[in-house]
Design goal:
alpha+beta; two-stranded antiparallel sheet; globular
Length: about 150
């Protein structure tokens, strides 16, 4: 895969289709009275193949708004899952797919799977086409701590 490819929803395996459907369902719970831009996300954990969903939650001051991806991440972490295999994001934006924002990209990079990456699936209603990519393509120079095994390198 280069940077991304756009494929038919029906050509995806059942696991990915289900993940996208769960992100679309979570989108229906979005609290977005200011932007009216509803986003849903679903994260598949690597360890147990559990799915955690989230939706965007706005606030009148905008600064404390929570993106859908960052609403799903703590739910997985609270249950002890620290490695993510894939993420689906569903939003409706004319003419393009909605990718995770920079903060969400960096947050997701903290919980990359054992292969060092996360598959990313971007979709929008009517959910016929899906943009498929990897987190490493969306965030090629992710910030990483210099701490490894509690030793500064």
């Amino acid at each position: 895969m280069d940077n991304y490819e756009i494929i038919d929803f029906t050509s995806l395996n059942e696991t990915v289709q289900d993940l996208i459907r769960q992100a679309a369902a979570a989108r229906k719970n979005a609290y977005c009275p200011y932007s009216n831009f509803a986003v849903g996300a679903a994260i598949l954990t690597e360890e147990a193949s559990k799915v955690y969903t989230g939706c965007n939650i706005e606030n009148a001051t905008f600064a404390p708004c929570i993106c859908a991806e960052r609403a799903a991440v703590p739910k997985a972490i609270c249950d002890g899952y620290l490695k993510f295999k894939m993420v689906a994001v569903v939003a409706h934006q004319q003419g393009c797919f909605t990718a995770p924002c920079g903060v969400c990209r960096q947050t997701l990079s903290e919980f990359r799977g054992s292969d060092g990456d996360i598959d990313i699936y971007l979709c929008k209603p009517p959910m016929d086409k899906v943009l498929c990519t990897k987190l490493s393509k969306l965030l090629p120079l992710a910030f990483e701590s210099f701490m490894k095994d509690n030793v500064i390198e």
